[in-house]
Amino acid sequence: MSKKHYIIPIFVPHEGCPHDCVFCNQNKITGEESKVDSDFVVNTIEEYLGTINKNDATLEVSFFGGTFTAIDINKQRELLQVAKDYKQKGLINFIRLSTRPDYIDDFILTHLKEYSVDIIELGVQSLDEEVLLKSGRGHTAEQVGDASRLIKEYGFILGHQIMVGLPGDDALKSIDTAKKSIAMGPDICRIYPALTIKDTMMEKMFLNGDYNPFSLEKAVEVVEEIYKLYIEKNINVIRIGLQPTDNINLGKDVVAGPFHAAFRELVESKIINDKLFNELNGYKGEVTVTISNRSISKLYANKKYYFKKLDNSLSDIELKVNVLEKFDINSISLKSENFIKTIII
């Protein structure tokens, strides 16, 4: 049995970041406003270690929130030294951080190697120059490629963070960004729909009518296509959608955009129901769909939204769903008088 993977998050809100991207308010997104020092890191790690069975766990300290490699070098050393000490003692297994592609070079990567960093995630967001410009990113697509190449050359695990629906973006640009990202060879990826957050430039653009966010349905459709591209190349998509917090929620600091607390499940639901449609379209009669009780939430996500669309589109078929406790979580069985099929989900 594989060990459970636990993230010990250290949020470094906006510290070191040289730009104010139009979508960003790190204090809102992370829910953190206090400064982070070595004592804070120690206390956070100890708090997590006190609740985790280390013998059954893979533990990772992750520095999120700001542009870590743009922080003052002495502050980087202060924070990383704590994580390195815990790693050397065998109390944690990995160290991860996120940063901008224009704050990666040989000096920075040599420095991170000295502190036993394992994973570097780049805030790519888009690889379309117009979108990067309108979003105030302050870097180019070429710099993403250069940073990705260097990170891989130094032997780090490379992550890309992609955001769909930014100013100037559309479905084709988002899909093209994913294709260009894949060509750079990331090991892992996160995909986020762009949300309009309070007290950001994007909020002003939205209120002034200069920016129209993706609808929830469009965002799911675009992310579905992107997700499938990464999966086809065996790139691990470790997150889809922003983590809901007290602030990041409808009626709170999300002003507009395709927010859903279970966005990934919506994407997976659409993929599953699309596969069922492709398999069943053209048939007539009764079809029994057998699925694991651990997968039914994906089939029925968002109050059966995509399942109902499937049912309505297959007007000549009567769908019956059979939920089993002891059934493969990664497959669905289809059975009628004329066929028995298994599809992988």
TrEMBL record:
Entry's Gene Ontology BP terms: tRNA wobble base 5-methoxycarbonylmethyl-2-thiouridinylation
Alphabetized UniProt keyword annotations: 4Fe-4S, Iron, Iron-sulfur, Metal-binding, S-adenosyl-L-methionine, Transferase
GO MF assignments: 4 iron, 4 sulfur cluster binding; metal ion binding; transferase activity
Cofactor(s) in the UniProt record: [4Fe-4S] cluster
Matching Gene3D superfamilies: tm_1862 like domain
Highest taxon in the source lineage: Bacteria
Domain Radical SAM core: 1-236
Coiled-coil residue spans: none
Stored InterPro entries: ELP3 (IPR039661), Elp3/MiaA/NifB-like_rSAM (IPR006638), Radical_SAM_C (IPR032432), rSAM (IPR007197), rSAM_horseshoe (IPR023404), rSAM_sf (IPR058240)
GO CC terms in record: cytoplasm
Name of the protein in its database record: Histone acetyltransferase, component of the RNA polymerase elongator complex
The organism of origin for this protein: Clostridium cavendishii DSM 21758
